Amino acid sequence: MSELVQSGNKSRFTDICNEPVNRLLSPIKGYQDKPLVSLTDAVEPVSEFFNEIEDNVFVALHNCQNPTEGLTQQESASIHLYTMQFDGGPSLYQLLNQSLRAENREELKPWFSYLKLFLTALYKLPSQSGTVWRGIRDVDLNSKYKTGTKFAWWGVSSCTTHIEVLESNQFLGKHGKRTLFSIECINGKSVAVHSYFKNTEKEIILMPGSYFEVLGQLNPAPDLHIIQLKEITPPITLIKPPFFKSNEQKPSSVVHKSSTISPSTSVIMSPTNLISSISNEIPPIISAIPNIPDNARWIQNGVTVAGGHEDGYTTDRLNSPWGLCVDDDDQTVVIADSWNHRIIQWKIGDRNGRVVAGGNGPGKRLDQLNRPTDVLIDKETNSLIICEYGNRRVVRWSRLNGSTQGEILIDNINCWGFAMNDQKCLYISDVENHEVRRYEIGKTTGSVVAGGYGK
C-alpha cells in the first residue's frame, strides 16, 4: 500500500484533499462477489495495516449489540468502526479512502470483504436528500473545483447536516484559511445512530463514487471559501451495488405481477384464493416468466380486496390505481395509487390500506411521488421499485418502518410500466418514445429491446 498522505486528513469530515477530481478513475468492481462475513473476518485481510485493530473491532461489536433500522450487528458495527478515530496509527477511514482513490484498483482488493459488509449496511439505510457540509482547513480548493465541473469523489464522504459541527476547533474552526463544501445530496445515508459519535456529529455519508457538479463558489469572508456542489446521477455505474453478482445467474427474489401456477386439468381461481394460492404454492424465489396453464379459468365475479368506494384520498379509498403486485409472504397487495400520488399496501381482509411511499402530494422531492403507474417488490433489498410517470423517473423506496423518502434509480424516462427478470434487469416501457428499454442493475442508461421507431 502506498504511503499515507496525512496533510489535511485530520478527520473524516476533512478527508478531501487527495480526491483525484481532475480525472475519472475506472469503476470499482468485484467486491460485490465476496460473501457477507463477520466484521472480524472482513477486516482480517487489512489487519496488518493497523495497530491492534482487533480491539477496535471488539468495541464496535460491543456498542452495536442492539442495532436499529434493520441492520444486523455486524453491519451496524462496520459503520461504527468506520467512524472511530484510532490511537497510535492511521484510522480505518484513512486507509480505506486512500485505497478507494488509488489509480491501481489492485490496491483495493484487500478491502473487498469489508466493503461488501460496509456498503451492504449503507444500502439498507434509507436515502436522504438535502444540504450537507464538509470541508478542509489550511487549504484553498477553489482552483480545483471550477464552476460547471463534474467529478466523482471516490472516498467515503463524511458530511454533517449541522455546519456548527465543522466550526469546532477539532475540524475547521472559525479562523484561518478554510474551504467549505455545501452539497445538495440526493442519496445521503444518515449513520448517526450507528456512529461511535452518536450525539455530536450528525453524520451523513455519501457513497464511494458519488458524482457531483460544481454550481458555484463564494468567498463570504477573508480566507473562507465556499464551494457549492450538487449530487447528480453519473453517466456510468462507478461502483456496483453490493447485492449485484457479476458472474452469477440466479433466480430473482423480486415479486412479480404474475405468478407461477401448477398445471392441472382445470384451474378456476377467485381473487381471494388466487392470492392464497400465490402465497402457498409459489416458492420464495420465483421465475420472472409466468407459467399459467392454457386451460386456466377464473370465475367471472371478483371480490374487492382494496378500495371499492368512490375515489378519494382516505386510506379506505383509491384514485385511479394502475399497477400492483402481490407480496406472497404476508398476503399483501401493493398498489400504485396514481392520482393520490402514493403507493399503498393492503392486507387481505383489512378495511384500510397503509401508505408506504409518497402521500405528500405531487412533487419532485424525494419524499413525494407524482402519478406512480407501476410498482414491484425487490425482496433482496427489502424495497419497492416505483415507476413515476409524472416525474419521469424510477425510484427505490425502502420498506423499513420509518422510511420517509426514496432514491432515484433512473431519471429522464417517460416510464409507464416495467418488469424485472432473473438477472434483475429492468424492462421499462417508454410511452412517449414508443419503445421498451432494458436497464442492467446499477446502470442509468438503457438499451432499446422493442420499438424505438416511432408510432
**What is the CA-CA span between the terminal residues?**
57 Å
The helix-strand sequence is: HHHHHEEEHEEEEEEHEEEEEEEEEEEEE
Q: Domain count, please report it.
A: 2
Number of helices: 7
Query: What is the CATH-assigned architecture of the largest domain?
Result: Alpha-Beta Complex
Shape: globular
Taking the sheet with the most strands, its summary is: 7 strands, mixed
CATH class of the largest domain: Alpha Beta
Classify the fold: give the CATH topology of the largest domain: Toxin ADP-ribosyltransferase, Chain A, domain 1
In CATH terms, the superfamily of the largest domain is: Toxin ADP-ribosyltransferase, Chain A, domain 1
Low-pLDDT ranges: 1-9, 248-289
Oligomeric description of these chains? single chain
Structural class from helices and strands?
A: alpha+beta
The tally of strands reads: 22
Share of residues in helices: 10-25%
Q: In angstroms, what is the radius of gyration?
A: 24 Å
Strand content: 25-35%
Q: How would you portray this structure in words?
A:
The N terminus is likely disordered. The protein has 7 helices and 22 strands. The protein has 2 domains: 221 residues, Toxin ADP-ribosyltransferase, Chain A, domain 1 (Alpha-Beta Complex); 198 residues, Thrombin, subunit H (Beta Barrel), CATH 2.40.10. Helices cover 14% and strands 29% of the residues. The N and C termini lie far apart (57 Å). The longest helix is centred in the N-terminal third of the chain and has 13 residues. It is of the alpha+beta class and 455 residues long. It is globular, with a radius of gyration of 24 Å. Helix 2 packs across helix 3 and helix 3 packs across helix 5. Strands 1, 2, 3, 4, 5, 6 and 7 form a 7-stranded mixed β-sheet that branches.
